[in-house]
Amino acid sequence: MVLEMAMESVFAIVDIFFVSKLGAETVAVVGITESLMTLIYSLGIGISIAATAIISRRIGEKDPQQASRTAGQAIITGSLISLALAIPSMFLYRKILILMGIDETAADQYGSYTLIIMGSNLVIMLLFINNAIFRSSGDAAISMKVLWFANILNIILDPLLIFGFGPIPAMGIMGAAIATSIGRGLAVIYQFYLLFRGNHRIGLRLKYLKPDLAIILNLLRLSAGATGQYLIATSSWIFLVRIISLFGSQVVAGYTIAIRVMFFMLLPSWGISNAAATLVGQNLGADKPDRAERSAWITGYVNIIFLGIIGLILALTPSSFIRIFIDDLEVIKYGASCLRIMSYGFVAYGLGMVMVNSLNGAGDTVTPTWINFFCYWLLEIPLAYILAVTLNLKEKGVFISILVAETAMTMSALYFFRRGKWKLKKV
Length: 427
What we know:
By secondary structure, the chain is mainly α.
């Protein structure tokens, strides 16, 4: 799972590495597009969490047929939601970019990136859901291999399509979107090949893709909480980007690169916390709640050590990571400031991720939703505006608000995990 998440983070790093060669405005467009895509990621992750909770429980109960049936219904649910989002976004992408602070000229010139990424969100949705199916059943190595495959394609195609080579024309920022979509799309085809081949814990059959209303409603019930918590968390990033855009494209570019670097560092730890979700679900299914709790604590300690080391490195040398992507001194300055401030909370992030994912793995998706609502909407967004605009700390005020909100989230999740009511959850 750690290696899987490392591969997922490579997508973000590769795109921003090559796109940054085109200038600060293109980086800003990529950053705003990614902040918009987090809404779609939220839905994909929400369904994935619901599928993980149910499938891991069925595997723990030694019922692989019902686990496979749930997998098929998760795929149907995600596909329908994805298509409902893709169609309007393909017509509204330009207006959305302008609303988010991009000027009309840049929206016209670079909006093709947003159009392609938002229009092809089905492959992103299915990539999340299918990997969650493998992961929750215990086949985490398959999820890792799928993302290796997708990333190799993306790394090859990105420079070819962005800058051109031989008969391949230079497509600029649009080439980055096409490369990412092709890499992810072929990875999804590979996932379905493995699922239908049927020699793993989950084996798809066409009959499992026939809508089963009872399972779909159960998935939607669980995913509503899971989607809500990630939608709350990720939509807050849109408001943060909007506040940061008040201070210019170079600030947005620095923030975008810093966030990509941070996600690159954090995603392996998401792999560790995903392990906690699977272990909690399977152990509860096997009627071993004490072992489920012990699994979560051990995973939390590992994550604290891992992110503590990463946070120390980022705090000491933040600018060196930004320079990998761009040589604009102003962008480097803002990006380094963002990385340094956020790295102070990495130890807290490590424990918080595990606590939240453990609650999700048990099927308690409502508690993390309320935690996120308080920490991100009631605390982070108002605090960011007050510090950045009212107190005139500018972009540093936004960075500080992220640190405060993430730390508050960790403390809240720890409190509810220790109460232990999640052990009684039925899914």
